[in-house]
Amino acid sequence: MTYIEYLDEAADTVVDEMRREHGGDEMWKYFEESFNAVLDHIDESILASLAEAWYPEQAEAFPSQAVTNTLRVLARAIWSALSSLSTVDEKRLEKVDWDAIDWRPLLERLVDFDKSDVGGIAREIAKEIGRAAGVAPETVEKQIVGFAEAAVTESLSYIDSLKRLLESAKEIDAEAYKEILKRIEETFLPKIRARITKTSEKISEANAKEFIAAVTETLKAVRDAINTLTKSVEELRKAAAEKPAKPVAVKPTVRPVPVGETAAEQEYLNRLATKWKWGYSPETAEFLAPLTVVWAVATDRLDEYPDLREEAKMWIALNRFVWSSAVGFKRGFLEIEKGDFEWSLRFFDVMRLIENRSPELLEILARFRSRDEVPTGIVYSLAESKLYEFRRTVHGPELGKEVTLRELEEIISRRVAWLEEIEVETGKTSPWSAGKTRVAVPRPQRLLTILRGRCPVCGSEKLELSQVYGPYNPPSANCAIATCLNCHTVYRLYGDGRGVIAPPTLDPEKWRQRWENNPAKDSKHPFTEEWIKNVDVFAKAKGFSVEPQF
Amino acid sequence: MSRDRELEEREKRVFEELERLKRILKALNVRAKRVFGEGR
Q1: Is the pLDDT confidence value at A418 over 80?
Q2: Which of A79, A212, A272, B14 has an alpha carbon 20 to 30 Å from A384's alpha carbon atom?
Q3: Least CB-CB distance to B35: which of A149, A203, A282?
Q4: Model pLDDT for residues A285-333, shown as the tens digit of each residue
Q5: Residues of B in Cβ contact (< 8 Å) with A282
Q6: Are the Cβ atoms of B14 and A369 closer than 8 angstroms?
Q7: A100: Cβ contacts below 8 Å, ≥ 6 apart
Q8: Which of A156, A183, A464 to mutate: most B Cβ within 10 Å?
Q9: In this predicted complex, what is the ipTM?
Q10: CA Rg, chain B, in Å?
Q11: Cα–Cα dist A185/B21, whole Å
């Protein structure tokens, strides 16, 4: 039998499946119309190409199964495309003439996609349907991505507030704090986790409509937690005004040393554990976590350390270069066993840049935000070019000096010790604060206040605030960053009060081109030559130094 | 297990989990951009 002869039966199976999943949805009629149009336009050669590209083994042995699976991929991608478009305006789908869409060349193009790339296939389909519906792809993109970004930013700030509230509850009433912690752990965290899992599933399915719903639910779960906790803390404060309670001192706990596979590996881990004391404050944990994850990935131990699994996924999702580092880590062990430390040194330098969330590294990464991944080479060359400066920032006297692995470990252990000695000045009191030196870290909010909520250069309100990076030694290197998504000017505020305004360039033509090519540009604030003057005006008014990026 | 020890462990779990959730949310945002945003 030919592939096309399997088509009707396969289509019935797939439509039944889709109906069970989405039958009651408002989009169902558009799905039926579009899927039927695809079935009408698909012929033997296209179907065979798709089936052989996506299911090569089945295509030969079980052609009927290959056809069913191929249609299943198409159906799911069509659903995803419709769900993306419906986030803009579902009514526009009413106007689509499904048979007028040029399905054949579209289906032919899909052969080049991996079957697991539902997002990519759906985007390709959405372009064609969007064209027929009069919806520009950029509109869809902005709508979904903008929504996700806003919801995630808001959720993150709620989580930070939650942490602050917990700490304040602890200071007010130690007993009540225990109950609140229990409630957070047993009621709120599972809810938030479940919502996040659902959000993740919807991203995997590239289902924009349900993704937005899931993100909204996640945000709601975090907000509910904070509202409830705020009420509890307010009640505690009221009660404490009558009878003050003593805070309970809690010491940091100790994380067990991971188990090495070979004697050399174990010795290495023991050495790290001894040097780093393997019991650490949140600041140090932040510093060490990626190394531990990379170690677990490199040595295939993720199964033994489930808590690291999610962390690893996050790093891998964020930047694939961690995979390269993981491979390097494995090689690093071999080199250490052989006694050749040269390669390991370079690896540690790269890792350190990542671990320290170097502002320079992050700024460079930000420029690549529109690409699928950050090329590993960039990170490596950055590590090389920034090594000198980086050593100066972190280690002062060791400026430009070549070091052995042993010395490097000492440098790392000194940094860890320093992290353990300081209390980052964020206005909170943590169990780890007692007797520590306070180090000022500028908060992004402070930078936002200086900027008055909008970019002083172009006037756009599309400002992206970055986390506070660091803490660095010396503290004057601690830095908060704001980036204007419209004109690409970067503002940095350092721990010692220094400010830097970094426009992309001071060349009007180059800046104009950059703005025109910026997919996230704010059309309400187009490029004008005034921008260059504004850089100078702002720098003078606020005492910032001007450091153009190019 | 003593009550203090229990509290310490719970506190550690909750704070670590909140940090972990933050990291996962950031990673989700990156994934969402990749799936729904870039490449169009």
Answers
A1: no
A2: A272
A3: A203
A4: 444 444 455 455 444 455 555 555 554 444 443 333 333 333 434 443 3
A5: 15, 19
A6: no
A7: A132
A8: A156
A9: 0.91
A10: 17
A11: 13
